[in-house]
Amino acid sequence: MGNADSKLNFRKAVIQLTTKTQPVEATDDAFWDQFWADTATSVQDVFALVPAAEIRAVREESPSNLATLCYKAVEKLVQGAESGCHSEKEKQIILNCSRLLTRILPYIFEDPDWRGFFWSTVPGAGRGGGDEEDENARPLAESLLLAIADLLFCPDFTVQSHRKSTVDTAEDIHSIDSCEYIWEAGVGFAHSPQPNYNHDLNRTELLKLLLTCFSEAMYLPPSSDNSSANPWVQFFCSTENRHALPLFTSLLNIVCAYDPVGYGIPYNHLLFSDYREPLVEEAAQVLIVTLDYDTSTSSNPTVDGTTTSTAMDDVDPPGPDNLFVNYLSRIHREEDFQFILKGVARLLSNPLVQTYLPNSAKKIQFHQELLVLFWKLCDFNKKFLFFVLKSSDVLDILVPILYFLNDARADQSRVGLMHIGVFILLLLSGERNFGVRLNKPYSVRVPMDIPVFTGTHADLLIIVFHKIITSGHQRLQPLFDCLLTIIVNVSPYLKSLSMVAANKLLHLLEAFSTTWFLFSMVQNHHLIFFLLEVFNNIIQYQFDGNSNLVYAIIRKRNVFHQLANLPTDAQSIQKALQRKKKTPEPISRTNSQDGLSMEGSRPAAPAEPGTLKTSLVATPGIDKLTEKSQVSEDGTMRSLEPESSQSPSEGSPTAEASQPKRDRRRLSSASLSGQWMPTSDWVLSWKSKLPLQTIMRLLQVLVPQVEKICIDKGLTDESEILKFLQHGTLVGLLPVPHPILIRKYQANSGTAMWFRTYMWGVIYLRNVDPPIWYDTDVKLFEIQRV
């Protein structure tokens, strides 16, 4: 039968279904088979031939027919999984049913009355009064999920058959050990099967259906209560699924082994259409959804870096019920970590390779899914996190993240990408090794819209963060605390900042210490505390190599004097706020001496008007996102008890957060309109804690010496002054070094919910062909146009 006839027949069946007012019996196979038995329709055809309005009409007007259609389609998948679908006809039926269910499921999920439907058993339906007892009947959702799992390891359909001849000896799908059929070499599997175009396509279709099953989460509003685990994911990742381990391994390996360049030959991808990429994307999306697990409320799945055992065995404490999370947290062989890290780094760097060899490789689009996966790996598997930081390989993750952050800073549709990039860097910055690794010289010249500089990866990070703060869009302001916390965390380890980076840090201090900025919002002064902490850490712990920063501090000494003499009287506060009304610019971009941008770079562009984006829930403040640890002499960290770490005597941004609300209200009395207004008491309460002693002492010692050199030698040449500063010392002249404080990321339900909304928002927007969830009534986020 021609494709046109096939479509026509399918469309006729759909029309019959929508026009029937009477229930059609489940036993009426002649009617139901029209939907899958004799048709060969692509997934795009199914979406076109089954319009949303008609699905909703059947749902409202003949619900029993929609129920029977779903039940019969699931039954076909179960039968296919039972028989091992050996004939072409059976394979086609499986694909048709998958496509149909992918089309219909979102409309079941969007209606709260239908939400329990897949979790109910269908009493006696289609059993023709067989002798099975209804008590043993599984809920429809479970039958569907187990059938998909079986079909993903079905010889000659989704995996290579291991039998030589096909006559009569077709493998019994129930006796095969699916661990021998893992899709790709990598973690826990050494054999790389011959790539097979058809198997990849069939896997992709089944994974699309699986992802659609999991997407019920999109139809529930975001809740702070995370007990609402996704029942589909929960069942699929439980011991009920005998393929959990091989499937987890297959998904992880298929993603990490993917080489979009086409086996190292540039331009190779233009020669053949790459059918592996859709599978890799689908695998990445399914993987991150199965790993949507809130560690802050559960017993923590991570294992400390001390236990040793074989690939994944039972020596470790039992992890969470979610086997995918459990397996991920128990990977520990060095070669497995190396395989995962190399794969993720290769894929994240792919868009950067594009910029200096245009079109040489296929440009992948799933970097956001990869970032979520990398986050989950580091969050659930501490041994992996330590492995990443053990060598300078971590820089292969850092550079692409900085590239994405810089590239997306002006684009409002990519706020989520900005957040996840910053969260990953915050997580990494909590470990001493990250700061140490940043001292490696930066020589790769990825074209980026930033000033040209010669220096280290630390310089690159500071310059990109400066660019985000001074020329990103307004919606990024909540990230400023995070960006500066990252710089504070690495600052004690930075051996030598370039002049460009040193000037950027002082430009930020200058911008953040204007009176109108300090007085215009209740938390703005925290940014000054963070920057002073950076300068103090470098002066106390890395003075020797940092003459550029010391010179920049001396040149901008008036900023520190102005801070020390910050006016606190009501009149000055009012005057500062009047000035704000005239200059609404968030941060002055002048005198940041940007100079030329790197060659070949494009300026960061805002989103095209009309670009779709999904809303995100707010992220917790930095005091909730992190907990403080103190670094002892020997480099070990100990967590500080919240009481001691937030005593108001310590000049920390959280100092006033820990004061009783009553006092805070008094300090910053609200005006009658209910809007917050700064008061003298409020300014005094934090001005007295500004940690300026170290810098004031440095200026007191060095400024007269520098001035003397200039007068004696008639110098205006900065290289001479730098030479003097390089050999200068402040030993014994500075206050006693303060202990190093690191603010480490800590899991909490707020970030778990943020990750859920972000991840599903990405999946929603990326699945446009077919548009699985478009125009359905999702509740987890709003769809907005820029």
Automatic annotation (TrEMBL):
<dbReference type="GO" id="GO:0042144">
    <property type="term" value="P:vacuole fusion, non-autophagic"/>
</dbReference>
<dbReference type="GO" id="GO:0030070">
    <property type="term" value="P:insulin processing"/>
</dbReference>
<feature type="region of interest" description="Disordered">
    <location>
        <begin position="574"/>
        <end position="672"/>
    </location>
</feature>
<dbReference type="GO" id="GO:0005829">
    <property type="term" value="C:cytosol"/>
</dbReference>
<dbReference type="GO" id="GO:0005797">
    <property type="term" value="C:Golgi medial cisterna"/>
</dbReference>
<feature type="compositionally biased region" description="Low complexity">
    <location>
        <begin position="642"/>
        <end position="653"/>
    </location>
</feature>
<dbReference type="GO" id="GO:0061792">
    <property type="term" value="P:secretory granule maturation"/>
</dbReference>
<dbReference type="GO" id="GO:0009749">
    <property type="term" value="P:response to glucose"/>
</dbReference>
<dbReference type="InterPro" id="IPR026705">
    <property type="entry name" value="Hid-1/Ecm30"/>
</dbReference>
<dbReference type="GO" id="GO:0098548">
    <property type="term" value="C:cytoplasmic side of Golgi membrane"/>
</dbReference>
<dbReference type="GO" id="GO:0005881">
    <property type="term" value="C:cytoplasmic microtubule"/>
</dbReference>
<dbReference type="GO" id="GO:0000138">
    <property type="term" value="C:Golgi trans cisterna"/>
</dbReference>
<dbReference type="Pfam" id="PF12722">
    <property type="entry name" value="Hid1"/>
</dbReference>
<protein>
    <submittedName>
        <fullName>HID1 domain containing</fullName>
    </submittedName>
</protein>
